[in-house]
Amino acid sequence: MDNVRNDKITRRNIRFVVVGVLVFSAITIAALVNKLSQPRILNKYELPEYGALLLDEPQALLDFTLQDQQGERFDKQRLLGKWSIFFFGFTHCGDICPTTMSVLAKTYGELKAVEKNDFQVILVTVDPERDTPEVLRDYLLRFNSDFIGVTGVTRNLINFASQMKVPYLPKVSLPKVSLPKTSSPIKSPPSSTGQAALGTEPSIAQVQQDQPQHSANLIMINPAGELHGFIRPPLAHGGLRVVWRSLQASFSD
């Protein structure tokens, strides 16, 4: 009888152990799944690996008044309550701007619907003469209808770019250099040795002197409307998404 009783106790203890192991395993797996589903939080050592540089202390912005692509007022109030990702460019830009906007569109498009409520992407033109609200609106529709385009008078745009720590040289209309009709090298007058030195044709930079110059960085404004940091190129949508989600998860205003 004692042996039978001991066998029952042993089997019961084994069942308790097995159930305990299963419960512990289930809790561990659930915790792991939950952790993997949360945004990765980058620390200050990891952020530069993704091109992100944060200010030691976010900087408040002075008041400004610009105009969006719908002709509506764009000011500091439009920056409150969500992350604002700024890029300074222009619609006639041939390479950097469309490439950057495409990466931003892919990054934003892959966010969850609830995450999109926490971010806004804003293109600020550095070519206000050509980039009217209508031109900006049509241009942004090529990337994402949620994106915001901002323009204004040159003086206000330069002041705004200065607050954002963004280098910005506006378009300066200078006489273009006339290219020679011949494809032959340009010869300079004979040198002291009696031989003509070969010159070169004007560079594209010399010919296209009326193109505005701007930074390729992204500027991050936090939900309190403060300058928070920058993201330097090269840009990749996967890395941008990690940075954006990390900032959103770790920020408290």
How does this model look, in words?
This protein is of the alpha+beta class and 253 residues long. It has two domains: 1-37; 47-173 and 199-250, Glutaredoxin. Helices cover 36% and strands 22% of the residues. The protein has seven helices and twelve strands. The chain has helices at 2-37, 96-109, 113-116, 133-140, 154-163, 204-207, 237-250; strands spanning 52-60, 65-68, 73-75, 83-89, 119-125, 148-151, 168-169, 187-190, 196-198, 213-214, 218-221, 226-231. An eight-stranded mixed sheet has the order 1-12-11-4-5-6-2-3. Helix 2 (96-109) crosses helix 7 (237-250). The radius of gyration is 29 Å and the shape is elongated. It starts with a helix and ends with a helix. Mean pLDDT is 80; it is low at 30-36 and 182-209.
CATH superfamily of the largest domain: Glutaredoxin
CATH structural fold name of the largest domain: Glutaredoxin
CATH class bucket of the largest domain? Alpha Beta
As a percent range, the share of helical residues equals 25-40%
Topology:
Elements lengths: L1 H36 L14 E9 L4 E4 L4 E3 L7 E7 L6 H14 L3 H4 L2 E7 L7 H8 L7 E4 L2 H10 L4 E2 L17 E4 L5 E3 L5 H4 L5 E2 L3 E4 L4 E6 L5 H14 L3
Parallel strand pairs: 4-5, 5-6
Antiparallel strand pairs: 1-12, 2-3, 2-6, 4-11, 7-10, 8-9, 11-12
Helix pairs in contact: 2-7
